[in-house]
Each structure stands twice: as C-alpha cells, then as structure tokens.
Amino acid sequence: MEKILVCIKRVIDYNVKIRIKSDESGVVTDGVKMSINPFDEIALEEALRLKENGNASEVIIVSVGSDDVQQQLRTGLAMGADRAILIEHDTTLEPIQVAKLLHQIVDQEKPDLILMGKQAIDDDASQTGQMLAQMCSYAQATFASKVTVNGNSLEVVREVDQGLETLEIDLPAIVTTDLRLNEPRYVKLPDIMKAKKKPMEIIDPSTLNVDLQSSISVLKVSAPPPRQSGVILNDASELVAALKEKDLLND
After folding, report:
1. pLDDT tens figures, 57-82
2. CB proximity list for 96: less than 8 A, separation 6 or greater
3. Within 10 Å of residue 191's Cβ, how many Cβ atoms?
4. How would DSSP label each residue in 220-235?
5. For the chain: N or C, fewer Cβ within 10 A?
6. Phi and psi for 40 in degrees, rounded to 5?
7. For 226-247, what is the mean pLDDT?
C-alpha cells in the first residue's frame, strides 16, 4: 500500500486529574497538560511499524481542532509521520461532524489504510471510525489487538466479549486500535527538532463544504458522586442483611 492516514485527537493527558468548571459547562482545560489520545498514539505507532516493515511508503497524520493541536501533530511528526494535516476549528465538534470532515480528507488523499484509536478518552464516544467507514464505503475492523498485512488484505485480531475474533478485510480499510496492539515509541529530542521542518497543512473547514451546525447541547457537566467506603462483614448472614437494608436483595 502507498498511504496510511492516521487520525489523532488532542485530549487532556491521562495522568491529569479532571476538574469541573465552576459553572458546570465543561471540564477545566486552561493550564492543563494536553497529549495525543492514547489509543490514537497506538494507531500511529502501528502505522509507523507497517511503514518500517515495507508495507507502506507514507504515513500522514490528521486532526480536527484549534491551532493548539499543532503541538500534538508535531509530536506525531517527531514519532516518524511524514506530514500532517490540521483542519482548524475552535469549537467542540460531534463525532458525525468530525467523520464528515475526515471523509473530505480521505477523498483528497485516497489512503489505502486509515488507522485511529477505538475511542477518545475525553468523551469515550467510539463512533468516528465506524461512521467514517460507512461514508467512505471502506471495510472496517474495530478494537484491533493485532494487524497483519497479507498483500491487498489485512488480518485483524480484535477483542470481543467472548475472547478474540480474527477478521480478514480487503484494502482500503479502516482499523480502530485497542491498547494491547503495541507500545508507542519514546520521542527523542533530535526527532523533535527534525519534526519542525516536516510539512503541516492547515485547512479551513469552510473549504470542505461540511455542515458543522451542532445538534447536541451540553446542559450540565458534573462530577460523579464520591464512592462510599466499604464495610467488613463477618459472615453470609450479615451480607444478606446488608443487601436487604440497601434494598439490593428481595425476600
């Protein structure tokens, strides 16, 4: 295959403790460390390994977001991606809108393989990959824990509730990645310096002819209730009594 397109998202770093804004309109992002969504970073690592093994000639990364997303795109370039595309948009978009924008990029670039994380850790929507596959009429495999190239097809091992499922899908295809697929590489300082010279295209979404009118309004964002402390019970009878007291067990 010639091109692999990797979709990444800027999210609050997974090590940061999330705080709710005082007006409950969202979470605090000012002054907070931001990173590439961990699942997307795994997707990028897999794309780079496929290229290094001679299965692709170019890895392109694309993201939708504000100008700040350039930082994460530069990190992706430092990891080894060849070029980057930023669809610059300052407000939060729904998965369907992101999929429509990415669809336009797919039409322009015509990649043989699209990789992205199975979900983003900020909204856990797990929708964009499936929507994009439908729009592009591409074969798809989700929650991939192993990807093997077999000529013009892929063998994808995916995690399901019952265990592991192995699929064979034809290229072009979209694969969403799970945590156990690989471990992303560490970015070295020389690679960060080299990434500054790699091309990054910034696209105004208005040129892509996509309706970005939101259909969902966030009414309130609140923290989950604090977890209650556990209790130690001496025997089964005390357990039954405690469950009945909490109305969790009927007579």
Report:
1. 999 999 999 999 999 999 999 999 99
2. 127, 131
3. 15
4. ---PPPPPPPP---SS
5. C
6. -70, -35
7. 87
Give the up-direction half-sphere exposure of residue 86: CA atoms within 13 A in the CB hemisphere. 20
SS (H, E, C) 11-45: EECCCCCCCECCCCCCECCCCCCEEECHHHHHHHH
Domains belonging to the chain, first-starting first, are 3-223 (3.40.50.620)
pTM of the model: 0.87
pLDDT tens-digit profile of 201-227? 999 999 999 988 888 888 898 888 888
Sequence-distant (6+) residues with CB within 8 A of 56 are 1, 2, 3, 4, 47, 50, 112, 113
4, 10, 13, 14 alpha-carbon torsion, rounded to 10°: -60
CB 39 within 8 A of CB 119: yes
